[in-house]
Amino acid sequence: MINRELFKKAEETVENLKAKGLTVATAESCTGGMVSSFITSVSGVSEVFELGITSYSCRIKNQILGVDNKTLESKGAISEETARQMAENVRKMAGSDLGVSVTGAAGPKGSEGHPAGYVFIAVSGEKGTEVKLLNLDPVSRNAVREAAVFSLFQLIDQYIKDI
Q: Which residues span the domain enclosing 152?
């Protein structure tokens, strides 16, 4: 069953992207493709959606998304730096106006010394890259993932508001 509130937020974000004539590409880890899934569930999304990559392993974050191995080794996959590089690199890879990313610990257990619900989201575009740390209530794995996706849609909307 689809989360109606999250679907409505995805529709709003897609409409905002269309209104600004912007395209987007996604790089996801802990959300497992949920960002792309909700965006592509919106009719007419082909006007704005370029590419979606789900990358759980550090190897793929490095080899496909271009996250620096030094960053992954020193800061970890769950870090501001990794989220930043994921968003910036997927944007370049797709040639899109925006690149967005999410990486974190969905739970139920923590990861890399971080508790469940510790998630970074990022948006990258011509006005730079914004990264935000979320400390989400780890009620359940799916609740963390949905809250991260909703928060990313909010960050996208906020980012493009002034473009």
A: 4-161
